[in-house]
Amino acid sequence: MRPRRSRGRLGDRLLHAYTWLVILWLSSPIAVMVLFGFNDKQSKSNASWQGFTLRWYGELFAIPGLTEALKNSLYIALVSTAITVVIGTMLGLALGRHRFRGRGVTNFLVFAAISTPELVMGASLLSLFVSANLPRDAITITIAHVLFSLAFVTVTVRARVVTLDPALEEAARDLGASAWGTFRQVTLPSIMPGVLAGAMLAFALSIDDYVVTSFVNGSTLTFPLWIIGSVKTGIPPQVNVMGTLIFGIGVLIAIVNAVAARRRV
Amino acid sequence: MAEHGLIEQSAIELEGVVKEYLSHGEVVQAVKGVTLDIAEGEFFSLLGPSGCGKTTTMRMIAGFEEPSEGVVRLHGQDVTNVPPNRRDVNMVFQSYALFPHMSVWDNVAFGLKQKKTPQEEIRRRVGEMLEIVDLTGREKRRPRELSGGQQQRVALARALVNRPRALLLDEPLGALDLKLRQAMQLELKRIQREVGITFVYVTHDQSEALTMSDRIAVMNDGLVEQLAGPREIYERPASTFVAGFIGTSNLLSGTATGGVLEAGGGRVLVPGHDGEVSVTIRPEKISLSADEPAGDLSALPGTVAEVVYLGTYTSYAVTLADGAEITVFQQNAHDAATTAERGDSVWLSWQARHSYVMESR
Question: Which part of chain B is CATH 3.40.50.300?
């Protein structure tokens, strides 16, 4: 009994240490990003710690190109998320609920969209836009973002739909609700966690996409594109601040979602 | 329908209703032509094994399935192609189908809100209904915070609060344990008397159907095998299927001559029948005796193969000379332990009126 217990305790300790190591490893880049947003740097590069300052928070929008790029990114992320959530929810509902001709093909296409390398998707989208004679700008970026995040939203919603008791919708109909009333009052609230998770995923995928965007952006710059462009000349601390803020908002949304989910289920 | 002389209006009528499905490219008939006439205020059961078409039949009454052929009428009105939200019937689902994101109150109020009932009336009727199902004080709970029995009662209240012309119940007690199920059977019967609404009850549990129903339609393979009151279904099964499905019964068959069937070294009285017949006898109608009984009785000799003491009665398995096995129930009314032991030679006897004879088709 005794040796087993002490071995268990040693194992526990190792597991603890290992867990903290992993957490540290995962969070250190974020910690560095947050920290260097407060760096009172004097030289051009923001690579060594030179003292604490809140200056960059005050001068957050001092670089016109960066501000413009962030605006573009937020705008594209919001619009593409809205479009993706509507189409993805409809797709997820159809695939999770109904059997129809072409269902297998649709399922395969959804899977293919997830597994296609971004490089391939970006290159093929570019040639599509060029041959369709579409000027590359924020609109083509938005179209591209809808395209690659659609599959993720579809899969998230579909996963929720298949757990739904079909009798719920029948009960609503039975109690006098119209088809639209049933969707609004019963179906949508029931799949809402899946829809919200899909929306967050779509937003996150859009706001930090580099590969596909770099093919279809034309002369429009997004936040990630601007950062990559500034690597050679030194990334300004404002980028760290913006990254910190975006990350903070993400964490906040995740917490709210977790609390709401606990209340809901 | 002799016991229902007062039928004034039919609540639900099915006329030659057929439901066909396409399954793996083949047409399958789930319901093969059902004609029913359910009276106002009746507790009516659709009873049968799984796959007999009872649930499909109910879903056609509710409007979730459209019949391939035939007509569905509610209070004389043809509703065959009317969608479920415009039918004046409500359903209690097997899974209850309570809306998980709504409180008990909102669940029950759902139907009234769809009909744009005034707030004041919704408040009053939902309150009353929750009182009837004994859930007052739990209005703010979510369905998952309730026990199975309470969820069941919310489902019932949610349907009944709309004052439907008929309530459809799809195996509503299936998920409850035995004790609760028996309590809910009486509860359902009480509520039905209180609200005076036609209940159509789908079940595969024969004792449930016998306990609660005014009339039962026993279904098998997409057809109604028998439509009668519980007593008649039990005492006078119309087919070997019904006899086998309802309770325990013994089946003897052979060729009758002059109203007597010679079988297993004895005689079975089948007055008025000749030719190929099969005879159903309920186990509790048969008496056991050591000697050949005198008088005008059906009598068969046999050997006791098994004795099972079951508290209120004892079950005997008796093997006849031709190998057939007959089950006999004897009430344990007297102190005397058992009337026969395993291996005893005994005579089985019963009165002619307890033989239920079906001429082989």
Answer: 10-242
Q: What is the pLDDT of residue A172?
A: 96
For chain A, the structural domain boundaries read: 64-235
CATH among 2.40.50.140, 3.90.1150.10, 3.30.460.10, 3.40.50.300 for B249-359 = 2.40.50.140
Separation CA A166–CA A135 (nearest Å): 46
Residues of A with CB below 8 A from B94's CB? 167
Across the interface, whether the CB atoms of B97 and A264 are under 8 A apart is answered: no
Contacts B122 to A, Cβ<8 Å: none
Separation in Å, CA of A184 to nearest CA in chain B:
12
Exposure letters B239-254 (e unless 16+ CB within 10 A, then b):
bbbbbebbbebbebbb
pLDDT grade for B8, boundaries at 50, 70 and 90: low
Closest CA of chain A from B158, distance in Å: 8
pLDDT tens-digit map of A43-55: 777 778 888 888 8
Q: What is the pLDDT of residues B256-277, one digit of tens each?
A: 888 888 877 788 888 888 888 8
Q: Which pLDDT score, from 0 to 100, does residue B2 have?
A: 41
Return the CATH fold of B10-242.
Rossmann fold (3.40.50)
CATH 1.10.3720.10 fits A64-235, yes or no: yes
Chain B residues near residue A265 by CB distance under 8 angstroms: 144
Instruction: Give A108 to chain B, closest Cα distance, Å.
Output: 22
CA angle centred on B57, ends B52 and B58, rounded to 5°: 120
Lowest mean pLDDT among A67-71, A75-79, B171-175: B171-175
Report residue B104: phi and psi, to 5°: -55, -45
Round to whole Å and give the CA distance between A90 and B30: 32
B97 Cβ neighbours under 8 A, 6+ residues apart: A165, A167, A168, A170, A171, B155
- Partner-chain residue, chosen from B83, B89, B93, that has the shortest CB–CB distance to A171: B93
Please choose, from the candidates B269, B109, B322, B319, the residue with its C-alpha nearest in 3D space to the C-alpha of residue A172.
B109
Question: Cβ–Cβ of B84/A190 closer than 8 Å?
Answer: no
* pLDDT computed for residue B360 by the predictor: 62
Closest in B62, B95, B158 to A165, CB measured: B95
Residue pLDDT, tens place only, B194-227? 888 999 999 998 888 998 999 999 999 999 999 9
Tell me if A213 sits within 8 A of A222, measured CB to CB.
Answer: yes
